[in-house]
Design brief:
Elements lengths: L6 E4 L13 H14 L4 E3 L11 H15 L5 E5 L4 H14 L3 E4 L9 H12 L6 E5 L1 H4 L5 H10 L3 E6 L6 H9 L4 E4 L5 H6 L4 E4 L6 H12 L3 H15 L7 H11 L16 H16 L4 H5 L2
Parallel strand pairs: 1-8, 2-3, 3-4, 4-5, 5-6, 6-7, 7-8
Length: about 300
């Protein structure tokens, strides 16, 4: 499947049972909620997907199940987050065999690779698969920045590198990328609290987090932006911001899973070493979620204009 790198692409959470196995039943409930809301792709095995805790077999199962559920309607994208080039190549090839439509790729994990090493890592992996690739550029959380000069070399060498998940937190980087590469490199905002600003500056889409619990509102913002109904998008976004801020937190997985419980499309179970929230921390997050649900916008009002 050719991927149109645009629109809302949820970085979905991985659902676990009380016995710490994959909860494929609740996983399907959430994926169907995303589909019904009109998302444009599903991303598996990212930070929200607790990728570092998943076995290779579990990753394979998630890809196959998602491919089954979406029935070819939207692309299924697997995140590659590996410590070695060899394992990244193997993971990319296995994802392709399992039916993934594309890949999202982080630089090497743990070891802080320099520019030459990072470029070579991406090149070798990209050249080992036919799948289209979105580079996940998040130097704040992962310590390695893919600069514009590095992208220049990668785009010249790897035609299947087609997009960037822009998570540098520097909003002007959207314009720098557009000025440098035009439509050759699609841009998807990777920071929930900068999504509307990124779309305003010309980003093509949004790799979203709180969409896991609030898919309809997330898609509504994107649609209004595409239709140049900026006042509608802004009104929903202003309501959404306190919830979106739950994504820019070290406990983002626990936060968003609590929100999924509140909207009926997830469970709270996380995989150790993560633990469910307790005490004041839990109380504060639940208050934000409760306030958001109480004041949830009536989307019919916006679509009836």
């Amino acid at each position: 499947m050719d991927i149109q790198w645009k629109g809302v692409m949820p970085a979905v959470t991985t659902k676990f049972t009380n016995n710490d196995t994959l909860d494929l039943e609740m996983f399907e409930v959430n994926i169907k909620a995303q589909l019904n809301s009109g998302v444009h792709g599903i991303i598996l095995g990212g930070t929200l997907g607790e990728a570092s805790t998943l076995s290779n077999q579990e990753k394979s199962t998630l890809i196959k199940e998602t491919v089954r559920i979406v029935e070819g309607r939207i692309p299924v994208i697997m995140n590659i987050a590996e410590q070695t080039t060899k394992n990244a190549i193997l993971a990319a090839q296995k994802a392709e065999l399992d039916g993934a439509s594309g890949l999202m790729m982080l630089p090497p994990m743990r070891y802080k690779a320099d520019a030459r090493e990072t470029i070579e890592y991406f090149k070798q992996t990209a050249n080992a698969t036919s799948l289209p690739i979105m580079v996940y550029n998040n130097p704040i959380d992962y310590g390695v920045e893919v600069t514009l000069d590095m992208f220049e070399e990668l785009l010249n060498s790897c035609p299947n590198i087609q997009a960037v998940k822009e998570s540098t937190r520097d909003i002007s980087n959207v314009t720098r990328i557009k000025n440098r590469f035009g439509d050759r490199l699609a841009i998807l905002s990777g920071v929930d609290t900068l999504a509307l600003e990124s779309l305003t500056l010309g980003a093509d889409g949004w790799v979203a987090g709180l969409v896991c619990a609030f898919p309809e509102e997330t898609v509504a913002i994107y649609r209004h932006m595409v239709q140049k109904e900026y006042d509608n998008a802004l009104e929903i976004y202003r309501w959404f911001l306190p919830l979106l801020e739950l994504d820019i937190n070290t406990k983002l997985v626990q936060n968003i899973k609590l929100a999924e419980v509140a909207t009926g499309i997830g469970t709270e179970n996380v995989r150790a070493p993560r633990l469910p929230l307790i005490g004041e921390e839990r109380k504060n997050v639940l208050q934000i979620i409760e306030n958001g649900i109480k004041t949830r916008p009536n989307l019919v009002k916006f679509y009836s204009n």
